[in-house]
Amino acid sequence: MKKVVIGGCGHNALIAAIYLAKAGLSVTILEKGSIGGATVSQKVFPDYEAKLSRYAYLIALLPDKIVKDLNIKTKTLSRNVASFTPTVINGKDKGLLINTKIGEKTKNDFKEITGNDLEIKAWQSFYDDVYKFAQAVAPTMTEKLPTRSELRARVNHPIWEELVERPIGESLNKRFENDLIKGIVLTDGLIGTFASSDELQANICFIYHLIGNGIGEWKVPEGGMGAFVAELTEKAKNLNVEILENSPVISIVEEGSGWLINNKFRCDYFLANFAPQVLTKIMGTTAPKSLEGAQIKINMLLNKLPRLKSGEDPKQAFAGTFHFDESFSEFQTAFDEAKSGLIPSKIPAEMYCHTLTDPSILSPELSAAGFHTLTLFGMHLPANLFERDNKGAKEEVKKRLLMQLNRYLLDPIEECLAVAKDGSLCIEVKSPIDIEEDVSLPRGNIFHKDLSMPFREDGSEPSWGVETEFKNIFLCGAGAIRGGGVSGIPGHNAAAAVIESLTGK
Where are the chain's structural domains? Predict the structure, then answer.
């Protein structure tokens, strides 16, 4: 029986392990900490029975194919509201509520914010084109990498040029007039990516956020991210996958036609469910180019939802992604300031209130009392801003973000935070430096390294996008091509690469 060792036990490792075990291979997973990696649910605030998805929040890219293949039962819940964005028009507080299915409310909000019907028409036209792109690309994510020409032919639409060949900022400036609307669209290109709208790296990030299952809908896992991982763990163990916690991978040595891991575990194949930078350090080779992580994550427990100055119902405003200070020009200013080594004077940010969709992550008592979780994701905050004084920089960023948020609230967010037994407020701040320390994401980069386009160049060797320079060592985490996000795609593709090398198909 062929033997596989996987280093790291996140959701991708578990998915790879299940596929490989079902194919008759012997699988051992070595995890330096505990099962789940960044896809865990944790009781962040010990005095309260609330399990937060601490680092990974939503599921969009998980292909239906993987769900069907592995008979995954964890429910993913749709959000009726896509986003809400508060703003100020002529000194008056307004808001743009975008429902998942565009209706009269959204159309009226667009008109009130922009002054005409042109932007909602431009919005629908743009996303109709993006949908055509997603429909063509999504099925290829669990296939061998297509060539650029092959994928372009499958898309067969002018949107290819806008999303792949030209910076996305050009498309947004051509398609839209309103600064706020352009920014709301752009946010999907900048989440976790330190880039401006005139860099193709933003295009790649945008593509990954919009192609999931051909629809690009981001859903909440019922029971929290930990429920998803728990199900995968049970499936893996039922297939006799061995999972060893507190077992970091410290050495990988070639032995015959296979590999010796930690001078103890012999295997025919090794899969790295950790960052490529970690693999290259172990192997003594050059690390891949990578942008720094550029986000701060603030987890909060609220005893009530704050009211908004715009008058929008909080249960609607916070039900989707809550954007603030994310106009096109604000993004650019923040990027320029951060690039020069300054904490942005106004930090673009968005928030997620999962409990409005999935109250099960709270105890029945907390849910009945009106408690909610709130996670804030601040952008254009590269790791280097926190390097000299992580604690001080985090405090400054937190102060600025809460002040910015409060500009749009009738109830200051501090007054809505639950209070711990020691009198402290239930709020936790994680910088890129903390994220690297906690879950081994290099420089806090949630994608491990620069994202790549979901194709290979014409004339290059066929590939699953998981191969390394070492025979029978594959990436099965976010650092693989088509990795990133809670997707299972690199796990599936790494398993497929192993099976192909054994069977020829």
Answer: 3-39+61-75+222-288+451-503, 82-115+295-379+384-430, 121-217
- Side-chain-side CA neighbours of 240 within 13 Å: the count stands at 8
d(CA 454, CA 481): 7
Cα–Cα distance for residue pair 218/220, rounded to 1 Å: 7
Burial state string for 138-156 with b = 16 or more CB within 10 A and e = fewer than 16 = bebbbeebbebeebbebbe
Query: Which pLDDT belongs to residue 470?
Result: 96
| 214 pLDDT tier (thresholds 50, 70, 90) | confident
Which CATH entry fits the domain spanning 3-39+61-75+222-288+451-503: 3.50.50.60, 3.40.50.20, 3.10.180.10, 3.40.50.300?
A: 3.50.50.60
Instruction: Report residue 242's pLDDT band, with 50, 70 and 90 as the boundaries.
Output: very high
CB-based contacts of 380, cutoff 8 Å, min separation 6: 190, 194, 294, 331, 334, 335, 337, 338, 344, 347, 348
Strand-pair partners of 450: none
Q: Is 460 helix (H, G, I), strand (E, B) or coil?
A: coil
Residue 218 pLDDT class (50, 70, 90 cuts)? confident
| Selection from 269, 280, 228 nearest residue 496 by Cα | 269
> In this structure, are residues 96 and 84 in contact, taking their beta carbons and an 8 Å threshold?
yes
Q: How many residues does the chain have?
A: 505
- Which tokens sit at 167? 């910076």
Instruction: List 467's β-bridge partners, or say none.
Output: 474
Q: Which sign, positive or negative, has the C-alpha torsion 386, 391, 396, 397?
A: positive
Q: What is the DSSP string of 295-364?
A: EEEEEEEESSPPPBTT---HHHHTTSEEEES--HHHHHHHHHHHHTT---SS--EEEE-GGGT-GGGB-H
Q: What is the mean pLDDT of residues 446-469?
A: 94
CB 389 within 8 A of CB 345: no
| Burial (Cβ within 10 Å: 0-12, 13-18, ≥19) of residue 461 | exposed
Report how far residue 262's alpha carbon sits from residue 472's, in angstroms, rounded to the nearest whole number. 17
Angle between helices 200-210 and 118-137 (to 10 degrees): 80
SS3 41: strand
Q: Which amino acid is at 297?
A: K
Q: Can you tell me the distance from the alpha carbon of 323 to that of 326, in angstroms, rounded to the nearest whole number?
A: 6
Report the SS3 class of residue 478: coil
340-397 tens-digit pLDDT: 999 999 999 999 999 999 999 999 999 999 999 999 999 999 999 999 999 999 999 9
